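Protocol step 4 of 6: structure prediction from sequence.
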Amino acid sequence: MNYTIYIIGICIVMFIFELFFNSLVPILSFNPANALNMPWQFITAMFIHANFMHLFANMFVLFFFGIKLERLIGGANFIKVFFISGIVGNIAYLLYSDYTNTYIPALGASGAISGVLGTLTILEPNMKIVMFPLPIPIKLKTATMVFAIFEIICVLFSILPSIGHICHLGGLFTGIFFGKMFKKNTYKSNIYFY
């Protein structure tokens, strides 16, 4: 059973559902002002996306990294990484919203996918990937470090405030934690695109 493909399928179905029933998006998206009263939002927000490009970018990254990680750690462990990283990412966003007193609803699988990236980085740090827009393969650990530094800078200086950078970081560090737990096994590297 390939959970990565199932998650991608659910996200695509939910996106089509959003097009016809847009009034449900506020109920399913993660609203830090109401999340404790609507706890399902910690999970449902992972499966809805703002627009086609948001969906496409997330599913593209999840397809390549998710399938690879799932092969390494198994379906059950993959599901744990995905969901727990996504939930922790949303908790980080909730705490950040309280701290900054800005309660903007958020949606998307980016926090969960960042967790997948974090776990895979620990298990396969030297795996070669192509990171847009660089045309040459680089090590996954380098790409992840660049990603993390970029996200931290965006949080500190409020760059691209419409993106949930803190959610990405929460998911990423959760994934790194999982990766360290799974580190006991050694795997072979491949080239993937990011």
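Step 5 (inspection) to follow. The beta strands are 128-130, 137-139, 191-193.
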